[in-house]
UniProtKB/TrEMBL annotation:
Limits of the FAD/NAD(P)-binding domain: 15-327
Name recorded for this polypeptide: Dihydrolipoyl dehydrogenase family protein
Species, as recorded: Streptomyces bluensis
One Pfam family cited in the UniProt record for this chain: Pyr_redox_2
Top-level taxon of the source organism: Bacteria
GO MF annotations, alphabetized: oxidoreductase activity
PANTHER family: DIHYDROLIPOYL DEHYDROGENASE, MITOCHONDRIAL, DISULFIDE OXIDOREDUCTASE
Cofactor dependence: FAD
């Protein structure tokens, strides 16, 4: 086929399901539909494995793990004197490269093939109902037809602000921040969310002098206020300069140096600049206009992840804007795969109750997240402010995590805080937040309590092992009983 021939000149290949995007979400949709016996094609224009495997979760945590391990070791008597030197940046970056498979997707492709899914390399675009046109790397085009469903799993991209001069400074986004091959001498980070604080933590520990400019009042604005406060305090102690209430007005690059002009009239210089200022859906060039939808928009869905108003189109993961987290996207993919398979089999009524196989209920009120800073911040469900805004009659219960017997054993001088938000009418937890070393491993217990709507009176009978940090659960319940 020549470049000038249309996609209609190529005989369509028909599958039961066509998946746009081979990140963790698309892979899991394919896995579930294949397990149900449906023929499934997956279309990917970049690396199979997606953002998480190569530019987000895996490389960022590979950068952060030695930072946190060193910080933990420094808090243990008899060990701290052995870990006082700098990190071996070259070794950390090499391990990061290993965890990303050197940005090669051979292993992920083999896995996709092992489940029986068919991979089509190229840019996929919707071409009317149940049709996808794939433009391959060589310019050839192939039409894919879906008997039952097309699942859009194309994820999101970094959103850059329209600052004067930005197009000329070669800014970092999360992709460059997690894949950089050298430590910048100075790094300025714009933003106060998860990407901003994690990358500030990593690059400062690797030897960069980091300045964080935050437009708002504090860090991690979607968590309880104390989470951002404790993380900001620790970043400052580590040598990061955190400026809140500060916006970048313009940026330039002068003789290789990035210069940021702030709204306060200050001038901040750095070797690199990272913008961690939000995400946008990767839906601008996937043919949404051919089915009457707005290109570049988030795609609203029901709890089976089917796009509102459609009988065949699904939007799974970041593109539906329900919870921009890999684990939530994979959860949605399991729900979507089950729903697609059930509808393909002619099941007249799907399980749409809160515990059904076809309803993504957890995305409404039980979304967990861990921020891998030092200290870690972990939360699930609603914050106090969110619960009150939703009209629930709630009470916040706060305790110092150091009151748990295991905290002092885990780290000398342990500093951390825990909060549970109790619904006083329903006797359940609406949300839980932990901040402190090692708390990322605590959050799943909270997720079970929140998602399962476990009565607080029953939580008394879930006895934490002694002496562990999990004893904080007992301290929280005691504080709730005694106040």
């Amino acid at each position: 086929m020549t470049d000038t021939e249309s996609a209609e000149d190529s005989a369509p290949l028909t599958y039961d399901v066509v998946v746009l995007g081979a990140g963790p979400v698309g892979e899991n949709v394919a896995d579930r539909t294949r397990a149900a016996g449906l023929s499934t094609a997956v279309v990917e224009n970049e690396l199979v494995g997606g953002e998480c495997s190569y530019w987000a979760c895996m490389p960022s945590k590979a950068l952060l793990r030695p930072v946190i391990a060193r910080a933990d070791a420094r808090r243990v008597p008899g060990l701290r004197h052995l870990v006082q030197g700098p990190l071996d940046a070259a070794a950390v970056l090499a391990h990061r490269d290993y965890e990303t498979s050197q940005w090669k997707d051979d292993g992920q492709v083999r896995w996709l093939e092992s489940i029986g899914a068919v991979l089509h390399r190229g840019h996929g675009r919707l071409d009317g109902p149940r049709r996808v046109t794939v433009e391959g790397p060589d310019g050839t085009r192939q039409v894919l037809a879906a008997r039952h469903a097309v699942a859009v799993c194309t994820g999101s991209r970094a959103l850059l602000p329209g600052l004067p001069g930005l197009d000329r400074v070669r800014p970092w986004t999360s992709r460059e921040a997690t894949s950089a091959q050298a430590v910048p001498g100075r790094l300025v980070v714009i933003g106060g969310g998860v990407v901003a604080v994690e990358m500030a933590t990593a690059w400062q520990a690797l030897g960069s002098r980091v300045t964080v400019l935050v437009r708002g009042k504090g860090l991690l604005p979607r968590m309880e206020p104390f989470a951002g406060e404790l993380v900001a305090e620790a970043l400052t102690e580590a040598g990061v300069e955190v400026r809140t209430g500060t916006s970048a007005e313009s940026v330039t690059r002068e003789n290789g140096t990035v210069v940021v002009h702030t709204d306060a009239g200050d001038r901040v210089e750095a070797d690199e600049i990272l913008f961690a200022t939000g995400r946008a859906p990767r839906t601008d060039d996937i043919g949404l206009d051919t089915i009457g939808l707005e290109p570049g928009s988030w795609l609203p869905v029901d709890d089976s992840l089917r796009v509102t108003g459609s009988e065949w189109l699904y939007a799974v993961g970041d593109v539906n804007h329900r919870a921009l987290l890999t684990h939530q996207g994979k959860y949605q993919a399991r729900i979507a795969g089950a729903a697609i398979a059930a509808r393909a089999a002619g099941v007249p009524l799907l399980e749409t109750d809160p515990w059904g196989a076809h309803a993504a209920t957890a995305d409404h009120a039980a979304v967990p997240q861990v921020v891998f800073t030092d200290p870690e911040a972990a939360a699930v469900g609603l914050s106090l402010a969110e619960a009150e805004q939703a009209g629930h009659r709630v009470r916040a219960v706060d305790v110092d995590i150091a009151s748990a017997a295991g905290a002092g054993l885990y780290a000398d001088g342990y500093r951390g805080r825990a909060r549970m938000v109790v619904d006083l009418d329903e006797d359940i937890l609406r949300g839980v937040t932990f901040v402190g070393p090692g708390v990322g491993e605590l959050i799943h217990s909270a997720s079970i309590a929140v998602a399962g709507r476990v009565p607080v009176s029953r939580l008394w009978h879930a006895v934490p092992s002694y002496p562990t940090i999990s004893e904080v659960w007992l301290r929280l319940l005691e504080a709730f009983r005694d106040t």
